[in-house]
Amino acid sequence: MARKRKTRTHVKEDTKASNVPKSIIIKHGQVGHSIAQLVRDLRKVMEPNTASRLKERNRNKLKDFLTIGPALQVSHLLAFTLTARAPSLRLIKLSDGPTLSFRVERYSLMKDVLNTSRRARSVGMEYLTPPLLVLASFPPPSPTTPPHLPLLMKSFQSLFPPLAPNSLSLSSARRVVLISYNAERGTVDFRHYIIKVKPYGVSKRVRRVLEGATQSHGLLDLGNEKDIADFLLRKRGEPGPEGGYESAASSAESVAGDDADAVDLAEDYVGRNNKKGQRRAVRLDEVGPRMELRLIKITEGVPGKEGAVMYHSFDFITVKKSKKEVALQKAEHAAKAQLKKERREEQERNVQRKKAAAGKVESKEPHEASSDEEQDGDEDEETDGEEEHDNDIGEWDEDENISEGEDDEESENESSEDEQPRKKVKFRKKS
């Protein structure tokens, strides 16, 4: 009989996977159904490196997620809330910051984008790998570039795993997240696409024949056609072959439209007949969600432990400070942080002192109980000796004669009263 092999339950942790950024996307406060659905859609975009099934409760606070996030190796926290003016989004880098605050100017959900598109359909297998990040329209670093834009670009870049072209598998590139900066409006546009690979150099009808079995409606319906040529070569809008056929040159139109979108596959890709070396047209189908974000401010630290304000969009209300005032503000923040640290250390010392005092009290109680038991044992021994003595006094001698008469009885009673021992009263000490 073959020996049963034990299944390995302890898998070694991948060192590369530990460097992958992980995120938690939450909503806090009273938000509507649309914002809650936007949170779920954004979790789907950030898969698989996010908590897609996280359920918030009403009693959960933002501080709870800030505390437990670093313990779970979470690198980013995205928090949505609803204000009186518009929804807002805070992008928090755990656990030291910075914190970027955005106002959500406009947004569209996944279901809205899919309902308006005729072609964009998601199979579901695309979300097993992280998306590729594309940063567009950001100005290059230069002395004239606003200092907050490079930090904004790096903040979005740190949300997604770094791209390694040498080790990247072509089949894992299934989605694209586009972050584009609109300089005219001063906003950031968020888009989400799925990569589609189609045959290149064939007409739409030929492509439908090649991919007909993979579509949801199954095989093509050619019941009304006399010949396959009626379907492949007939001009658009013509009822039958009497109107003539299209030429090969006019029918060979690309899916994408021009040769710039055609690529030669370096590896085998997902889909039918997408083999290495085949020429294919690449297309991006948007699946949502969409967001238009306006950066409000950037602060050091995390909520509850904010530092200095690094950037604020309301420059017309912001008070310009001198170097001396900035240094004084930094000194005040450092003093507050030092005071908070000292209070925390003092609280920890008080807790340790109380625990030590409670341990001493518990150690004394069994010692006192053992001393009480010893005293009780000594008293019991004394009473046993007294009882033995009483028994010796109460015994009669066989040679002793019993006298008769009243005088003898009175004298005997007197002698017995004198000889009767006194009983001792026992006192027990109170513990």
Automatic annotation (TrEMBL):
- Give the highest taxon in the source lineage: Eukaryota
Protein name per UniProt: Brix domain-containing protein
Annotated Acidic residues bias: 371-418
- Bias regions of kind Low complexity — which residues? 244-255
Please give one Pfam family short name: Brix
Transmembrane domains' residue ranges: 65-84
Q: Which GO MF terms does the UniProt record name?
A: rRNA binding
Q: What cellular component terms from Gene Ontology apply here?
A: preribosome, large subunit precursor
Report keywords, A-Z: Membrane, Transmembrane, Transmembrane helix
Q: Which residues does the UniProt record annotate as the domain Brix?
A: 21-304
Give the GO biological process terms: ribosomal large subunit assembly; rRNA processing
Q: Does the keyword Mitochondrion apply?
A: no
**Stretch list, region Disordered:** 238-257, 337-431
Q: Does the keyword Zinc-finger apply?
A: no
Q: Where is the composition biased (Basic and acidic residues)?
A: 337-351, 361-370
Instruction: Supply the source organism for this entry.
Output: Gymnopilus dilepis
